Amino acid sequence: MKKKIAMLPGDGIGVEVAEAAAIVLKAIEQQFGHAFEMEIGLIGGSAIDDSGNPLPEETLKLCRESDAIFLGAVGGPKWDSNPVGLRPETGLLGLRKTLNLFANIRPVKTYSSLAACSPLKHEVLQNVDMVIVRELTGGLYFGKPSERGGRPGEEDVVDTLYYKRSDMQRLIKAAFDLASVRGGHVTSVDKANVLESSRMWREVAEETADIFKDIPLNHMLVDHAAMRIISSPSSFDVLVTENMFGDILSDEAAMVTGSLGMLPSASFSEQGLHMYEPVHGSAPDIAGENLANPIGAILSAAMMLRHSFSMEEEAAAIENAVEQVLKSGVRTRDLAGGGETYLTTSEMTKEIVNALGDDF
Length: 360
Ligand code: ATP
Ligand code: MG
Hints:
This protein is an alpha/beta fold.
């Protein structure tokens, strides 16, 4: 099958892990007889350096002409003191908004072979297989300071948390759709004891549950959810929440698995053009050193094959290869727990590619 993929490596380790994902996609292309046309586009800091624009028109055009988008990560200290319009993150937020990528899907699965990497006890880690569904195009991240908030005076400041009911409806419906496919249940996370937006969120969750009669729904306050992710992560199936709560809880849940470098994500649009990216950021502290764990990026490529191209067998081949390699004891530095022996990004990628052809 012929597919066009917009590859947006971005900055820092984004570049290294996007390269790893591309190598794995090329191996799948050969093994299964597909044709993936991967074209690179600039976004974030690298785009600012090139043209002064964190989201160049050419990049948007490339994305719109593609069947799916792969993103590495954006940002870095070099651009931290830039004005807002010239920050790498503005490029990524702009891309999410422009392409209407409203639902961020983050699976959190523990590997028994990585139990030693997790700060949690072995018993607590059994059967952790949850998906965080995070709203991505609203909330505090998009409150426009110039219109509704900002700095009214020298000594005060306002950020606005704004949602339309329809934003909540489409996101919560996506979570219920996912729970139906998984045969699971939905936990809706909010702060309804404090926030008006959370009270509307609860109403919408209830209305949606009335449509999906077979899917159990429970509500949980975000502080309680933060605690439960540590005390009993296996009690969650699909966790759905607004933008900032989702940002925080998904980094927390990532650490349950042992490393931020392990987790993939997908961002779905209503129009069918989806984006895939590892959950981690550009990790300036290890950028350019070939030390990054490429697994989150490689598993994001697997999600792309499954969700955008309906290539289930190919996606499963990647996931099995990752599992196999981890079982064999191979580690990147983040997973090595202070041990001296670990592989570089490119060596780990090679191991996974080698395991692709194996039968398990
Ligand atoms: P962002 O704001 O873009 O989400 P962040 O502040 O959350 O970024 P990250 O860039 O994700 O930070 O990095 C957080 C920590 O995790 C860093 O110490 C980084 O080195 C480590 N880390 C992140 N991703 C990886 C990876 N793929 N492999 C190894 N270590 C990683
Ligand atoms: Mg982060």
